[in-house]
Amino acid sequence: MPETLFRVRWPDGQVETCWSPSTIITEFLVPGHSYTLHDFVAACRAGLRAASDRVAARYGGTGCSHAMAQLDAIERKVAALTAAQGDGTVRFEGFLTGSAR
Known about the structure:
The chain is of the alpha+beta class. The protein has helices at residues 37-59, 65-85, and strands spanning 4-9, 15-20, 34-36, 89-95. It has one domain (4-95). Helix content is 44%, strand content 22%. Helix 1 packs antiparallel against helix 2. The longest helix is centred in the middle third of the chain and has 23 residues, at 37-59.
């Protein structure tokens, strides 16, 4: 299953590279698009859960624990940013070369 890396610029200016176990994440995030924190975490939640489900369907068992760990990290970051500054805008910079798209 092809993993996919994607880059995010958080409202505090930090840039982070995130990971998905499946290219299905490309159906949930649009390169160059800005999202509210709430909308970004919702898109990541849907995309990473779909990726985890693909892993489960392909290899059997439960989903992908690494995808759920990535989602947890995104949710914690969004919670911290929301607590510190209220709402903000996340810039989805895109998928990295060598991964999807």
